[in-house]
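Quick illustration, no need to memorize.
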Amino acid sequence: MQHTTNNMQIKTINRLKAVLAEKQLTSKWLAGQLGKSLTTVSRWCTNETQPSLEILVEIATILKVDIKDLLVSTNKE
């Protein structure tokens, strides 16, 4: 899945926004849990930038999900 912003292609890599919605949590809440700015977390949620693997592990722990649930599968099957 891809979407276009300001004539630039942004590839959807993480599912952070979807997982937060499924758990009825906000990016503001997650930013507070991580000690990160809301802007940073919002950019992750829109796939404008990506969190590091270390941060993804921390997010998965906070949200009580498998890290795989935070990523878009590369398996085409």
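The helical segments are 16-22, 27-34, 38-45, 53-63.
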